[in-house]
Amino acid sequence: MYKLGLIGYPIGHSSSPWIHEQLMKQQGVQGKYDLLEIHPDKFDEEISSLKEKGLDGFNVTVPFKEKIIPHLDAIDGSALHLGAVNTVKNTENGWIGYNTDGSGFVHSLKNRFPDIFQSGSKALLLGSGGAARGIYEALTGSGMDSVDIANRTIGRAEEVIEQISSRAQAEALTLAEAEESLGSYDLVVQTTTVGMSPNDQQTIIRLNRLTKGTVVSDIVYRPMKTKFLKEAEINGARVHYGHEMLLQQAVYAFKIWTDTEPEALPLLDEFEQKLKGV
């Protein structure tokens, strides 16, 4: 009987319980997945209490992907390199941290747009938080020749590039510079919470300079088609939805917790219908 959950703030909107319930059914596993919302002001206190609850594992979402690290007993090499954790497994040696964001994103992107990984492709990430770190490492390790990062505070983008070494070319940009150079990218990824419900009329940059056929991705999945993705379509882009990444990274986390081999694709259509309210 697995005891699993999600920590973050706010998380009342999360679809993670539904996803993991479906994965349990798919694999014939018994368990429960709960939302464990923690207010940022009480994080250290609540995390200490959480250790007493005997969870088998839990996911970590904003704003705690970096803040959780000092509370772990060990950390996977990739997550340590990234400085961000989104999955924790409780073992006989204590809490071990992992990061499945990047692998989940790249896997879901390859399912939908395999051509984007051809030689010479150039990507732009918007934002420099925990999710951006995982996606940056995964993209640079998957053959992308160039992956730039744009952020409101350019110093944060520079930190990610400096801390996560890669073979790909990379440049830190302001959001204004990113808007100006949009036409040079094959892939644009929105990695922040901008545009998430209830603030779903917000966008991080304008997309009027996109080249037709560019793949535009938004990791926000509520609403399923964000204002950012709507504007991308208007400007001729091919869109990649955030729920596809969410589903795939959940599969990787579930593998870590249960040592089973679940599959994301059988759940994709049903998940889309759920998000659409059908």
UniProtKB/TrEMBL annotation:
Involved in the biosynthesis of the chorismate, which leads to the biosynthesis of aromatic amino acids. Catalyzes the reversible NADPH linked reduction of 3-dehydroshikimate (DHSA) to yield shikimate (SA). Its EC number is 1.1.1.25. Gene3D superfamilies: Leucine Dehydrogenase, chain A, domain 1, NAD(P)-binding Rossmann-like Domain. One of its GO terms (biological process) is chorismate biosynthetic process. It holds the Pfam family Shikimate_DH. This is Shikimate dehydrogenase (NADP(+)). The active site is at K65. It catalyses: shikimate + NADP(+) = 3-dehydroshikimate + NADPH + H(+). Residues 6-88 form the Shikimate dehydrogenase substrate binding N-terminal domain. The keyword Cell division does not apply. Homodimer. The gene is aroE. The lineage of its organism: Bacteria, Bacillati, Bacillota, Bacilli, Bacillales. Pathway: Metabolic intermediate biosynthesis; chorismate biosynthesis; chorismate from D-erythrose 4-phosphate and phosphoenolpyruvate: step 4/7. Residues 242-262 form the SDH C-terminal domain. NADP(+) binds at G127, S128, G129, G130, A131, N151, R152, T153, I154, G155, R156, I219, G242. The keyword Oxidoreductase applies. Residues 119-193 form the Quinate/shikimate 5-dehydrogenase/glutamyl-tRNA reductase domain. GO terms for cellular component: cytosol. Keywords: Amino-acid biosynthesis, Aromatic amino acid biosynthesis, NADP, Oxidoreductase. GO terms for molecular function: NADP binding; shikimate 3-dehydrogenase (NADP+) activity. Shikimate binds at S14, S15, S16, T61, N86, D101, Y221, Q249. Belongs to the shikimate dehydrogenase family. It comes from Halobacillus litoralis.
